[in-house]
Specification:
The protein has 87 residues and is an all-alpha fold. It contains four helices and no strands.
């Protein structure tokens, strides 16, 4: 299993998560929510932070990958809000 799966960035004005962390949690809306849910997945805070860093570094390179796949500059601008960082 990957640290993140079935994530589809969508351009547009409305940024919303439709992915639930657990059946009881509701849509993920913050990094804090992910850290709080880590024990559900048998992760401690250090492991959760390491996974966060790994995924953040991978996502940070999205522009380079998109350009390599032929995405044009105006499309990059449209998609940029879909790739935000949670503090």
């Amino acid at each position: 299993m990957s640290p993140a799966f079935d994530l589809n960035p969508m351009p547009g004005d409305r940024r919303e998560s439709k992915t639930w962390l657990t059946g009881d949690s509701g849509p993920i809306d913050s990094q804090a929510m992910l850290v709080e849910g880590a024990p559900y997945f048998r992760l401690d805070v250090a492991n959760a932070a390491a996974i966060w860093t790994e995924v953040a570094l991978a996502v940070d390179g999205w522009r380079l990958i998109a350009k390599g796949l032929g995405m044009q500059s105006n499309d990059l601008v449209d998609f940029e809000p879909a790739f935000f960082k949670l503090a």
